[in-house]
Design brief:
The complex is a heterodimer of chains A (743) and B (331). Chain A is α+β, with helices and mostly antiparallel strands and 743 residues long. Chain A has three domains: 164 residues, Aldehyde Oxidoreductase, domain 4 (2-Layer Sandwich), CATH 3.30.365; 192 residues, Aldehyde oxidase/xanthine dehydrogenase, molybdopterin binding domain (Aldehyde Oxidoreductase, domain 4); 203 residues, Aldehyde Oxidoreductase, domain 4, CATH 3.30.365. In chain A, 24% of the residues lie in helices and 24% in strands. Chain A has a seven-stranded mixed beta sheet, with helices on both faces. In chain A, strands 7-15-14-13-8 form a five-stranded mixed beta sheet. In chain A, strands 16-17-24-25-26 form a five-stranded mixed beta sheet, sandwiched between helices. In chain A, strand 19, helix 12 and strand 20 form a beta-alpha-beta unit. In chain A, helix 12 packs parallel to helix 13. Chain A is globular and about 85 Å long. The mean pLDDT of chain A is 96. In chain B, helix 10 runs antiparallel to helix 11 and helix 11 crosses helix 12. Among the domains of chain B are: 46 residues, Uridine Diphospho-n-acetylenolpyruvylglucosamine Reductase, domain 2 (2-Layer Sandwich), CATH 3.30.43; 101 residues, 2-Layer Sandwich (Enolase-like, domain 1), CATH 3.30.390. Chain B starts with a strand and ends with a helix. Chain B is built from twelve helices and twelve strands. Chain B is an alpha+beta fold. The radius of gyration of chain B is 20 Å and the shape is globular. The interface between A and B is large, with 38 and 34 residues. Bound molecules: flavin-adenine dinucleotide.
Amino acid sequence: MSTTPAGIIGRPTPRIDGPLKTTGTAKYSADFHIEGMAYAVPVIASIASGKIRTLDTSAAEKMPGVLLVLHHGNIGPLYRTVPGDGDATNSEVRSAFEDDVVRHWGQYIALVVAETFEQATAAAAVVKADYEAEKPSVRESLDDYTGERKKGSHRGDFDKAFASAQVKVDQTYVTPIETHNPIEMHGSVAVWDREQLTMFETTQGVVNHRVVMAQTLGVPIENVRVVTRFLGSGFGGKLFPWPHCAMSAVAARKLGRPVKLSLTRKMMFSSVGYRPRTEQRIRLGASSDGKLVALSHDYLNNTSMLDDFDEGCAEATPYLYSVANLSVTSALVRRNLGAPMYMRGPGAVPGLYAMEAGMNELADELKMDPVKLRIVNDAEKDEDKNIPFSSRHYQECLEVGAKKFGWEKRTAGTGSMKRDGKILGWGMAGASWVATRLPCTAHVEFHSNGRVSVRSGTQDIGTGTYTTFAQVVHEKTGVPLDRIDVVLGDSSLPDGPMSGGSMVTGSVCDAIAKASTEAMKKMLALSTGIDGSPLKGAKAEELEFADGRIRKKDQAAGDPEFAEILKLARIDGLSAEGKTVPTWEDPQSKDKSLHSYGAQFVEVEWEPEIARLRVSRVVTVIDAGRIINPKAAANQIAGAVVMGVGMGLLEETVHDQRTGQPINGSMADYLMATCADSPDIDVTFLDHPDPVMGEYGARGVGEIGLAGVAAAITAAVHHATGMRVRELPVKIENLLGAKVLQA
Amino acid sequence: METFSYVKAPNVEKALASADGAKFIAGGTTLVDLMKLYVETPKTLVDINLLPLDKIEKLPDGGLRIGAMVRNSDLAWSEEVKKSYPVLSEALLSGASPQLRNMATTGGNLLQRTRCMYFREPSAGTPGGYGCNKRTPGTGCAAVDGFNRMHAVLGTSDKCIATHPSDMCVAMAALEAVIHVEGPKGKRTIAFADFHKLPGETPHIENALEAGELITHVDLPKPVEGAKSTYLKLRDRASYEFALASAAVVARVEGGHIRYIRVAMGGVGTKPWRSREAEAALMGKPANEAAFKAAAQAALAKAKPQKDNAFKVELAKRCLVRSLKTATATA
Ligand SMILES: Cc1cc2nc3c(=O)[nH]c(=O)nc-3n(C[C@H](O)[C@H](O)[C@H](O)COP(=O)(O)OP(=O)(O)OC[C@H]3O[C@@H](n4cnc5c(N)ncnc54)[C@H](O)[C@@H]3O)c2cc1C
């Protein structure tokens, strides 16, 4: 493997921030301890619907150390952001403590601030609310919905084509409410210095967070700075501000002291979003040779009482396969639950679970290999928008995956495959995820101390962004990785994108490459004009920048380091800016359909005698353009596969039907995959650069690894047990009816 | 959490002398958790971590004495336990997580409390609170009409359907351990089967300990000659989850017939569930599938499933059949 700067793109590169994390010196938001800081603990509603009649804070106010109890009556003005304003995206329509109506269990009703965290916790426990409670609407199933449905993508005549199709599938697939459970809980440290507010936040988007906070608090945007140096992941739950952020800012302003607010794990289940429940009817019609003739996707997802959150389940439906007649409809169903929020692969992940599960059932109906069924229906162009794909290797994903997995050895009969006294089930599914390049800015600066810095107002949410950016600077300048400083996670930096939608790598790397090139050009120019420079008087065209040095192209000697030039010029730093043109403005990409693709192959082991099912092996093949850092990228995919095991078999937030409380809201009761549940995972990247995705052709890999896993699992479960489970997660009780009782 | 005072006892005498109205704290993995939830509100904590009760010793009669402060990990990895009482080692290692097992003690594990979600929430009477006769007697049982997938199917009453969560206790029930306690009235022993109480009308009374009594150690009888033992735990995920159903079996087979048998089950009962019905169905019978199935049938004959946990009846049967197979296998 190449170790030259030129080979750094695509080289598995260990994280440059790894040592900070393994030694506990990486500062996460709640690690900021500011002189004079007070601690805030929210009080949450213990009913899901009703009105607060009285809120008795008197006992809490008398408790030792208590400084302030904030609530509807004294929070003062907070402002809503403009719905649909893409530059100021909020999580909830309603601002904190806006009225005295309770619309979901866990809604904040007060905030206690005290000298210590313990004092605030103790006082929060004695704030007493008296409610006019109503029966909450928290019914789990959404099938009582009878209202209008919104029409989505549409082509041909679905009804007619489906009616006359030779082979059909018509099934409804259900995904439950799932809760984001990043290891780091949400937190907010607010510090006012006169009119200036600094917030150490757990956010996936410092720039957006800043705008929202300024608007919510009614202060000029210049007065707000948001910092997120490290994030213990977010999975979408930390994309946009939640009400607790404004609560800590207001408390800090009122007290004239820094305030820290950290959520508990229990609050994570009620107050900061979740993937909503989806109920998706899929209808597939095909000719007897497996060619799709009709496809419809009709879905419902729950939302909160005030927010219109559309999960967007049909994201991948209209373009993944070639089909002449297609119809999509959707509707939102209101429940007394908190606002839903995007979760890793929003829309596409639950949507592809349903569609790919339907495709697997269709393959069974046709007695056709499910890999072949997908290849037969591969799309030549995006039939939804009638535009070409920029780069699509879905078929190759399927073929490479099948080969690596050993798919040709699969025998179709239920329980027909065995190993070591266990039945094996094999299943597969396809995956897809959208790609976009967002507008953003990066600065690259050469410093007289011999270091190079790169700055952008995006953030590393644990995925390896710090390292990827350093790789780009290294490739361009030749300056070794240990002399490159990547500065992220601060809204005062040049505008960078949200860490969401798998878009950071594809967006920012371009700006960094441009800024590096520009900065090198400036260095060359400087080196020819400075007294004492060995290159004085040379023409810029004769020079090149290599390995952090400037030299004449035709001679090896006389090659000063950039730092020497800066010193001679008495300049501390020389910087340049690079900007990324968004995909929708770039003539190359604006009329292209941009997506990543993948294939998931899953093996489960099934012991019918004790109803034990485990995922033992996953082969995943991903077509996500050029992979900048295969090490970090494989880590993203493998992590997503483990999350897929949770989605397929374990994760589900259960709300008590009487109170609307997420009753399994703890890490012991809400089951996520543990290390012991993690299968052998084989990740392959096709690594075909996307010709329209900027200099590197990278599309990003944060989400696609989760897509398709659950559908491949349910297919494997069916293969092993004969049980067709159409409601996730697949539980032991769904499998006890399996006919084959012996491995 | 309520404010409490804290005493560190240097020896058993001091611990007992401080016990009035207090709670002993061993590993704290149950107690501190429940204090944070206001389920436990002791005025005083007596820390017993300095007590010299952390040894595993062979007894002259061939049995094994386990100090109340022996950590779950140390007990599980003890050579003697692995060799002579594998069911206990396996049960311990199937429980909780390595971190928790490093803290958890033998005495604390005997007294760990249910994970019923409603027991852990504020009681009825507060807005949004839940009835729980175990937490606040007389307030009803919210689990009966609530989410009760994890709840018990054996030994329940209309006052309480909470599962006893321990794995260790299931193994100890099958091993017929004896619990030694010391209190204001002196020392006494309690047979394992008599230690935990059925909920009946008084689900808040969970065991036979009297006020101020300290568990000092647990004795295991001499290993049954020629017997094999095993523990099987079934659950949704592969680790870090309480049992949906588990079984501990100690069995000796001679000439194809079962000559010694002890059966206990976990995850299904309101206490560690010794099944004398299963034992009766197996004793003297040929060690074959038919006998195992009959025993499983007998063990669950009185099962009373709730709305979300009917599957546990079938799962417990399969769990028991498989454990019996393992414990009686000749290879
Ligand atoms: C997330 C989680 C998962 C878990 N999973 C499992 C599992 O899968 N299987 C399982 O079996 N267990 C599980 N546990 C429970 C764990 O095994 C118990 O918490 C542990 O055994 C308790 O021991 P301790 O020493 O920490 O007890 P403590 O919390 O210190 O004490 C518990 C109780 O016992 C009393 N006590 C302690 N020692 C004595 C003594 N010597 N004499 C008299 N009274 C005493 C205390 O006063 C207290 O009331 C889990 C716990 C947690 C938190």
